[in-house]
Amino acid sequence: MTLIHDGLSIAEASAATGVSTHTLRYYERAGLMLRPVDRASSTHRRYSDGDIGWVRFLTRLRWTGMPISVIRRYTELAREGDATIAERRELLVQHREAVREQLAEITASLAAIDHKIDIYDKEIASS
Amino acid sequence: MTLIHDGLSIAEASAATGVSTHTLRYYERAGLMLRPVDRASSTHRRYSDGDIGWVRFLTRLRWTGMPISVIRRYTELAREGDATIAERRELLVQHREAVREQLAEITASLAAIDHKIDIYDKEIASS
DNA sequence: GCTTGACTTCGAGCGCACTCGAAGTTCTAC
DNA sequence: GTAGAACTTCGAGTGCGCTCGAAGTCAAGC
Questions:
Q1: pTM
Q2: pLDDT 10s digits, B67-125
Q3: Residue A76 and residue A85: Cα distance in Å, rounded?
Q4: Residue B114 CA to nucleotide D22 C1', Å?
Q5: What separation in angstroms does the CA of A107 have from each of A102, A103, A110, B72, B82?
Q6: Residue of A77, A101, A109 to mutate when probing chain B, most B C-beta within 10 A
Q7: What chain A residue is nearest to B115 in terms of C-alpha separation?
Q8: Which of A123, B21, B58, B87 ranks highest by number of CB atoms within 10 Å?
């Protein structure tokens, strides 16, 4: 680890984001990073705070079911700068709608599971 | 469609549950049904109300990320009858915990997405 | 009774998102 | 300066949950 702390190693970035080093490299290859991650004196990657923040955000997108291909599209727009803000906003608004639906589905499923557990409780009590 | 309505055809079951006919057969093969679905005079499947309810419940389990293998285990327990009620309850209670965590993650992700959209709104407003 | 279309079984194929391993290079500590 | 860990690239492999297609059978309407 260098004293001049100009970024995290891939192992540190992995620890900071919960994403495996294999997957971090995969994301970069897949075009999900705003730009290629900086390299230290060697070819080793050095993740900036911005990189870490970006990875954290895109894991949120992944977690909520946004496909890699769409994240790539979103990233491409972000690389193009301010001119694409409206389009990026629109993409996120659409995704937000999908996430809200997910939330509703999962909430309903949770209720169904609760209900089934209640039934078991009653069966256990009456036996 | 028979006049003696002793169950739904696979196409009707598909419509009733939102699960494709291919997947309904797959679920049966995979051991996710309590028992093999009844067959009509022919070899054609006839889904009872109970079958439909079961499929609906297990799509809830699938939707919330329970793997096929665990659903199979759960189904096997259910087939064994009342003696396994406590174990089935426990399995669902564990899954419920996982679902609650999902819900928390998704809610947090939704907040992050909202926040990003807010930022875009401000950038748009100030331009 | 014949056509048409839905049904059957079976095994293979697919898409996604990783995940891994091999083979080589570089950094850090001693 | 050398050992050993961590890094690099690259392409192939994996696991999951479907999804599909082929080839044949059956059922309902005409």
A1: 0.91
A2: 999 999 999 999 999 999 999 999 999 999 999 999 999 999 999 999 999 999 999 99
A3: 12
A4: 49
A5: 8, 6, 5, 23, 28
A6: A109
A7: A92
A8: B58
